[in-house]
Amino acid sequence: MPPAQPVRGFSLIELMVTVAIIGILSAIAVPSYTQYVIKTNRSAAQTYMFQLANKEEQYLLDARQYTSTKSDLMSDPAEVSRNYTVSISNVTANTYTITATPTGNQLAKDTKCGTLTLTQAGTKGISGNGTVSTCW
User: Whose CA is closest to 82, among 136, 38, 123?
Assistant: First the structure.
């Protein structure tokens, strides 16, 4: 009788333990990653809103009035326009409000902050169930 060859490969138990470990790691990692993406998108929108506010102040110095037309100031960055609709409203001689409304995935997943607002006085606002300090 020829000598027995050693068995190679993985047992079913070893494979199941590996699958269980991957499942546990995925259950922790995916929600954390999703929250990271939401915060990153929100941060990009906030940065753009501050840039618009700066451009509005420059426009006021040049034209002696605020503008409600974003194209007079700057164009929307792609990373912002994919996730937010940004508008300028309530424009008077002394006031304006910049609003960033989430769209698509950002709308569905960012219930904590929702719509972001920024006024000419620097007042920040949200429409979600979170707080201004945590969202801004």
Answer: 38
